[in-house]
Predict the 3D structure of the following.
Amino acid sequence: MRLTLGKITIKGLDFGSATRVENGKLFVNKEELVALIREDSRVASAEVFLARPGESVRIVPVKDVIEPRVKVEGPGNIFPGFIGKLDPVGSGRTHVLQGAAVVTTGKIVGFQEGIIDMTGPGAQFTPFSQTFNVVVKVEPVAGLHQHDHENVVRMAGFKAAAYIGEAGRNTAPDTEEVYEWPSLAEAMTKHPGLPKVAYVYMLQTQGLLHDTYVYGVDAKRIIPTLISPTEVFDGAIVSGNCVSACDKNPTYVHLNQPIITELFKRHGKDYNFVGVIITNENVTLADKERSSNYTSRLAEMLGVDAAIVSEEGFGNPDADLVMNCRKLEQKGIKTVLVTDEYAGRDGSSQSLADTTPEANAVITAGNANETIVLPKLDTLIGHIDVVDVIAGGFSGSLRPDGTIEVEIQALTGATSEVGFIKLTAKGM
Amino acid sequence: MSKLRVVHYLNQFFGQIGGEDKADTAPLKKDGVVGPGMALNGAFKGEAEIVGTVICGDSHFAENMDADLSQIIGFIKEYKPDLVVAGPAFNAGRYGTACGAVAEAVQAQLGIPAVTGMYVENPGTDMYKKAVYIVSTPDSAVGMRDAVPKMAALALKLAKNQSVTPEEDHYISRGIRKNFFAEEIGARRAVDMLVAKLAGKPFTTELPMPAFDRVPPNPAIKDITKATIALVTSGGIVPKGNPDHIESSSASKYGKYSLAGVTDLTAETHATAHGGYDPVYANEDADRVLPVDVMRDLEKEGKIGKLHEFWYATVGNGTAVASAAKFGRSIAEDLKAAGVHAVIVTST
């Protein structure tokens, strides 16, 4: 499998009469986009806003962030299982509007959505303060069940990103990256003498607003399996998931999977990167045992010497992380874990809900309980009144003067457990 | 700038009163330096000066901790210090405990920084490392020359409100997690660590695994048909409207609610405040998380004595273990006072 990612650098954003890219500036036809989203009869209203880096704009509650991409050559289309046909993706050519993002918002579904500030102290904690955001605000028709409400907003985001991605179809990319993923037979004989490594990619699958989808399948219904990194870059894995938005992977982060990207950089030099194993984080013990057993079994069948294991979420999935670590290490497979911490607002509590002595190589994305005061910003997109109840907020989070005190767990992507950001923590 | 005023705390031995035979010495104070205070003063290099020394016998302190502590704090306060140094205590257990207690009380009651020094295995280290800065010292007084300059340097930094780290300032990590921005993204750091681990090269984990408390279970109830049983949940089941505003994540409190006359929880009366699981099924029927209906059945059938008249609820989602332990202690005291025999704790 060979995938070329043609990256078109987006340096500006505005509304325009046609959705297109011109000299690095993305123009969006608002009416066309609204009409597309309103095709879903479950949508009562749809609005589109723009939020650029540095602007005094706050977006809340954020459900997903999605990078516009378009499949230019090769089978399939972006977000298979949700948009278009279900052909397998991951080969040919895909164009990326790098620097642009679709952000979905609208009235709260659960308590779990996030905040994006485009400026101020909050902006340094969310990577999506740096993207040119097309914000889609979707309100569902009355009486819709919560699961359907979530689905409506999620689908609106994918449709918007695919629609905007089309603007890159005939635009010449600024840079190109080529990713090769050989057959297993070939991978095993390549780079003799180098240790073999895999990536164990844990997907959040705990229910409403905690779900992740693979080719349209709810990942809580999979047993661990292999996926090609190039499929991930083409949107085979998408988010339905923004609980405690700091450490959930928006679709944007799946598309730009940082651990896979970094593993490619030293592939063939320091190790032979031979596999990506996706697994889930279901809530029952039997599921946890089954998935961790099979994750370590797949790693064993691949014959890898080491693996990076990344968690998505905290608390309950700490048990999955620890099981994966222990079972891999017991098979002699060295592990590096990537997680974040819930050490209390003062940082003095224990960070994880489960532990194992084998977990001696851990990367942390920081303590999500640390609080931050966000200033009042000029423009608000969404619904500010939810700040008191979203995960990371508390009674009184929204102060009378318009400032907000929240834990950083409310900021979308602040403690990314696939290491998308630089935040970390240490013991003092 | 005038010199910072320092009070030094010592035991009877380092305070030059005597050995174990004088360990019952009651708290006393002496102006200026005593014993190791001389070296400490030198290590301050003119930036600070010991204005008084407070001394207490190790046994006396251990046996009269509350009274001695309040007297010691009183003596210290009289010197109007800017900071306090206690010890170093090396591996002396009672002395270490006293140094830790004095340093903790100084910070809490006088609002000024305090520093002590101990050997890592001194029992005082585990007791006080979270509360106070403890410079890591060798296990005996032979290490005085090593310990004193480190303690002086750390004390000066704290008095000047400068930031400190365990690595640079030689104190035993307090285990307090503090966020900062690294040079590289986490994914890059993960790959670097993987390569080091594969090659058998040294690497430092960013999160040492915590040691967990294990709570031994109580003996079984002898006659469950006579027992009063309470329901406690971390699954967030509260009266609809969440009257106490328990947070959906990182709860800062728990609620106590009456079950008088309640036989069944319904979508109209109860809901979950928890933000960490799919709430739909709990909101349809909160008995799924807090099984009041089943408990009432068991009560009616005589299989349990009775269901306690209150239930307790908090949200376990992202809630610090320290907070959870605090809620647990408080709920347990309340249940004990109410004569409850057993508790069913449900999660999500």
Summary: Chain B has eleven helices and 13 strands. Chain B touches chain A through 58 residues (CB under 8 Å). The mean pLDDT of chain B is 94. The two ends of chain B are 59 Å apart (CA to CA).
